[in-house]
Amino acid sequence: MGKAKPTSAAPKSARPVARKSVPTPPAQNITSADLIRDNLLAKSTQKSYASAVSGVQEWLKETMEEYTARRGNDISACLVPLFCHPLAVVSFAKPTEVTVPLLSEYITHLVTVQKRSSSLVGVTYSAFKRHFTSQGKSGYWKPSPIPDECEGNPCEAQVIHDLVNAIKNKHKVEGRVHNHARAIWIEDIKKLQGVTASRVPVVLFQRALTTVDSLDVAQRDAVRDHLMFSAISSLGWALWTRNEELTSIQIQHLDWYHQEAHHDLPHLQVTLENRKGWQKRLDSGSSGNTTCGHAYNLYPFPFDDYGTFRDPHKMPEVDAYRHVCNWITFLQLQYHGGKVLAPNFPLFPSFNLHNIRWGSTFSTASVCQKPGSKGVNAELKLLREPSSAGWYKRL
């Protein structure tokens, strides 16, 4: 076995400023209802619910326009009175006598037209149940021609319960649909990283990580595609996390100074906030003192069997420690004038063509849904496609 070579901690250029404890200003005019609204559900769940409600409202608007204009091949004569009802336009904002039939039609549309899974149906149901509950609507549903006289929660209507359960039973009988032939392997990640690395010569790679503002636009884009994808793929592999959690990481969630009592090995501690299932683990007492997230230690590869790590073609494909370090160094040198990144900056900011937008987060989920022909977009899309011999030919 080769002798382990000492590894150094992340360079200063990649280290965020040591965080200082800032006293929290006293809360003012915060009620119990505010606390429940803001903290009962995880932020990711709140976003999912808001997205579900927004999607339903957009569908209702488009469908009503089609039925009002009597255009489209999917117009059903029996549904014309429903979608042309004078209260239909507000039925998802507040309960009306047509809220339940409209919601039933949307759920049916999800399953029969969009071919969505029962899990999305469950999210939609839960989102609207909470949406109407926040308006003080609870209990068994009793509709009325006058909206203000409607009682209960529309999601408690028997037809909604039966529809949701029927869809779950249908999908159980049909069997679960697998979108992947197999889980991705390290060899797959290595080949995908090789695509972006092929556009980055060694001298360009080294210059990007050592000299401030040393690349032209085309060179910077090529290096960015490779370093960003390498950081995302290696970090996702190491933490085995979801896209939303991965792209929610901020600089302040990376602790390059973390020390373990059992050893003094250099490592990076990454904190994922609101990781899936954290509430259940908190309730069961299995989450320890970590109530908002989970911390993971990432260590650099101890053996330098790949040659110099300044060569993108020889970097260990899942060495998340070095890939994240290189990505932060690149951001600071080529996009931030060599200055240390602010703690609230996202680790994976979004880019508008050639420019960076520090205030918004790079969305891997949205990119995966769009066809890509080159760069990081294509690799992220293919990470979610079934394994086949044509993976790399399509890039």
Describe the structure.
The chain has 395 residues and is mainly alpha-helical. It has 2 domains: 41-174, no CATH class; 183-382, no CATH class. It is 43% helix and 6% strand. It contains 14 helices and 5 strands. The chain has helices spanning 32-39, 43-69, 80-83, 99-112, 118-133, 158-174, 186-197, 202-208, 217-239, 243-246, 278-284, 320-335, 364-368, 375-382, and strands spanning 254-255, 268-273, 293-298, 349-352, 355-361.
Find the structural class using helix and strand composition: mainly alpha
Number of helices: 14
The number of distinct β-strands equals 5
- Provide mean pLDDT, rounded: 76
- Give me the strand/helix succession: HHHHHHHHHHEEHEHEEHH
Number of domains: 2
Any idea what the shape is? elongated
Work out the radius of gyration. Answer: 25 Å
Biggest sheet, in brief? 3 strands, antiparallel
Low-confidence stretches: 1-9, 13-24, 287-292, 363-395
**Biggest β-sheet: strands ordered side by side in the sheet:** 1-2-3
Please bin the fraction of helical residues: 40-55%
Q: Report the span from N to C terminus.
A: 38 Å
List the helices and strands and how they pair.
Blueprint: H1 32-39, H2 43-69, H3 80-83, H4 99-112, H5 118-133, H6 158-174, H7 186-197, H8 202-208, H9 217-239, H10 243-246, E1 254-255, E2 268-273, H11 278-284, E3 293-298, H12 320-335, E4 349-352, E5 355-361, H13 364-368, H14 375-382
Antiparallel strand pairs: 1-2, 2-3, 4-5
